[in-house]
Amino acid sequence: MTPIAEFRIPYTRYLDAHGHLACPPPDFQLDALLPVYRAMVLTRTFDAKAVALQRTGQLRTYPSSLGQEAVTVGLASVMRADDVLLPTYRETGAMLWRGVSMTEMLLYWSGDERGSDFAGPREDFPIAVPIASQCGHAVGVGFAFQYRHQPRVAVVTLGDGATSKGDFYEAMNTAGAWRLPVVFVVTNNQWAISVPSRRQTAAATFAQKAIAAGIPGEQCDGNDALAVRDCIGRAIERARAGDGPSLVECVSYRLSDHTTADDARRYRPQEEVSAAWALEPLARLRHYLVDQRVWSKQDEEALLSDVQARVADAAARYLATPVQPLSSLFDYLYADIPADLAIQRQQLLTERGQA
Amino acid sequence: MNTLTLLDAITTALAWELAHDPNVVLFGEDIGKNGGVFRATLGLQERFGEHRVLDTPLAETQIAGMAIGMAAQGLRPVCEIQFAGFMYSTFDHLINHAARLRHRTRGRLSCPMVLRTPVGGGIHAPEHHGESPEAWLAHTPGLKVVSPSSPARAYGLLLAAIRDPDPVIFLEPTRLYRLLKEPVEDNGVALPLGAAFVLREGSDVTLVSWGPSVLETLQAADRLAEQGVSAEVIDVASLKPLDMPTILASVAKTGRCVIVHEAARQCGVGAEIAANLAGDGLMSLLAPVERVTGFDTPMPLARLEEEYLPSVARILAAVERVRAY
After folding, report:
1. Which tens digit of pLDDT belongs to each residue from B162-173?
2. C-alpha Rg value of chain B to the nearest Å
C-alpha cells in the first residue's frame, strides 16, 4: 500500500507567552504593530465598558471578545479597505478597525438596527448571529469579486463550534472548486458556549478541515498578533492573486463568558481560565514592543487615558441616541412598501397617535 | 410571436435578462451543460458562457447562501433549486438573511436575488419531488413569493422577479411546464408583482387559485359555464404581497368564493385569503368561503398522487355547496 495523498498542517507562532521571539519573524515594519496594539487595547477597553453597561441595565446581551483581540484586530489589520468582512458576533476588534464606530456597536447590542448601518465599511456584512451561515455569503461576495475581475477578498470569521455545521463545509468546498477569493478564519477559542472544542470534533486541528475542500489550511497562535497577521495576511494575498481560498485556524481562548447572559463557571474550571490568562495577547505584544524599544510606560499611560476617553464619549453618544421612530418597523423591509404592509404601518401609527 | 410552453417562456425570460443585464448570473445543480433537469436553462450556458450560467457543487444551503453574498454585492443572482423538496435546507438563509438583509442594515445592503424552483405534484416523480412549500415562504416578512400559471405570465413575472430590488421566490408549477402553450412576445416587458390576474369574468361565484391548480380551476369554470353558472376566475400569482383588493372586489360582485390550492390546507395561503374575506368582505358574502386544497398529509407517492391534487370534481362540489347555501 502506498499513500495516494499526504497532508500537513503548518503551525505558526512568533511570540511566546512572554513576548519573546520564538523564531525569527517575517519581514515587517515594527511601526505597523503600534496601531495594532493600540486597537487591541481599545477593543479590550470597549469590551469592558460594554459589559459594564450591560451589568447596569444600559445594554442588552453582549458577547465579550476578551482574550481574542489579537485575532480580531490582527485579521482586520491585514485586510484592505475595499475587501469585505463577514463577521460573526465576537469580532468587535475587527469591526472597529474596519471603521464601524463604537457608538454603532453599542447601538446594535442595545437592540437598534441602526447599529448595522455602518457609516464606515459600507459593504461589510452585518454581524451574523446564526452560526456559520455567513460562510455561504462570503462565497457569494468572493464570486462577485471574481466575476468583476476585482482584486478584492472576502474574509469570513467563525468560531470552533461553527466548524461542525454543514454551511462551513459547503462554503469551503464551493470556494475551493471555483478558486474564489475567500479567506475563512476560524477562531478556536476552545468553547462553543459550554461545549469544549475536544467535544466538537475528533479532528486534531480545525485547520485540517480545509484538506477535504482541497484548500490550504494553517494553524497559528491566535494570541500572537504577529502570527495572526502573517498567516491571514498571506492567505488574503494568495486569494487576491487569484490563487483561491484558504482556512486559517487561530488558537485563542475565550476569557469571558459566552455572553453576558452566560455563566461559564457552570461548565469550566477556574484554574483553566487562570492558566489561559497567562497566554493572553495584549501583554504579550506589549512586552515585545517594549523590548523592541518602540513602546514605553508613558506611551501606555497616554494610550489608556486616550482610549478610556474615546470609549466614554462613544457610550455617551449611544446613551443619548433616541429610539427609532415606530415607522422604522416597516420602512426598511422592502425597497417599496407593499400596500398590505402600508396598512399595518398606518394602523400602528394611528393607534399610537403618530399618524 | 412564438408559441411557447411555460418552460420555454422561463428559458426565454432568463435569456432576455442575461442578454440585457450583465449583473444577472444563473447557477444551480445541473443547469449548465444539461440545461437543468427540466431543461429550463437549456442552451443558456452555451450562449452566455460558463461565467454567467454555472453548475454548482451539489449543496442547496450553499446555493442560497452565495446568492445572498452576490446580491449584496450588486449582482442579480438567479439560482435554481432542482425540486422544491430540496429547498428546505435553504430556509435558514432565506428567512434569517435574504428576507431581512435590507431591514437589518436599515437599507445599507439589500438582496435582489431570485430563487426558482419547480413545485407541485402530478408528474409521478419520486418522493420529495412534488412539494408545495408556498405557505412557509409567504409567512416570511421580507420575501416576495410568485407562482405563474401560464407561459405569458411566467415570462412577464420572471422578468419582474429578476428586476425586483428584493428577494423573490419563484415557484414554477412542474405539472404545467409542458402542458400549456400560448403565444408569448419576447419583448422584455415585465408584469407587475403583487397583482392578481382576473382570468375570466363572472357573476355567480369567484374561484381563486394560483400555480398548478389554476388549470383545474379553469376547467371547472368551463364546466360551470356549460351549466349556466358564471364563474369569475382569479389567478393570485403573487402569494406575497397578496392582492386582496382584486379578490375582495370580485367577491363583492359574486358573493361566493371557492379557493383552490394544491398545498396542504392548514395555515395555507387560502386560510389567509379566507380570513381577509371574513374581515374585509363579510357583508359581501352570501355563503361561507370554501377551500379545495391538498390534504393535511404529506404528498402521497405517485400511485395515489392524483387523489391528493384538487380535482375538477372537488372544485365543482365546493361550488355546488356555496351556491346551495
Report:
1. 999 999 999 999
2. 19
